[in-house]
Amino acid sequence: MPRKPKRPCRYPGCPNLTDNKSGWCDAHEKKMQQHYEHFARGYDHRARYGGSWPKVRARYLHAHPLCERCAAAGRYVKATLVHHILPLSEGGTHDEKNLMSLCVSCHEQIHQRAKQDG
């Protein structure tokens, strides 16, 4: 089966072609990820979450594979994110009582509501 044709890199002036989903060629992928971490997020996620977070997140998603909000509404949707109920910036922890597994849609709804309230 033929593959999709490669697209031009999204980096301005870059002549490289790529088939990466991000749209950045291999030469610019890391650079743009660092740019995102610094400017778009506004914080260093490694400093905020700590080195243990990837293991905690993976363990929680393994134990809770379905989105908890969707499951409460009778829908079965695979969870892809782990949400802190009480944000780390407000004193929350990685304790299981403070976590919930969510799909992207439910996670966005929670954060949109928080932005509107705040």
What does this structure look like?
- This protein has helices at residues 26-40, 45-49, 53-63, 68-72, 104-117; strands at residues 7-8, 17-18, 81-84, 99-102.
- The chain starts with 6 loop residues before the first strand and ends with a helix.
- The strands form two sheets. A two-stranded antiparallel ribbon has the order 1-2.
- The model has no long low-confidence stretch (mean pLDDT 86).
- It is built from five helices and four strands.
- A hairpin with an 8-residue loop joins strand 1 and strand 2 (17-18).
Which SSEs are present, and which pair or pack?
Elements: E1 7-8, E2 17-18, H1 26-40, H2 45-49, H3 53-63, H4 68-72, E3 81-84, E4 99-102, H5 104-117
Antiparallel strand pairs: 1-2, 3-4
The percentage of residues in β strands lies in 5-15%
Structural class: mainly alpha
Please state how the strands of the largest beta sheet are arranged side by side.
Answer: 1-2
Give me the Rg, rounded: 18 Å
- Sheet with most strands: 2 strands, antiparallel
Q: Quickly count the domains.
A: 2
Number of helices: 5
| Cα-to-Cα separation, first versus last residue | 51 Å
Mean pLDDT: 86
Oligomer status? single chain
Low-confidence stretches: none
Compute the number of strand runs.
4
Q: What global shape is seen? A: extended
**SSE string, helix = H, strand = E?**
EEHHHHEEH
Q: What helical percentage do the residues reach?
A: 40-55%
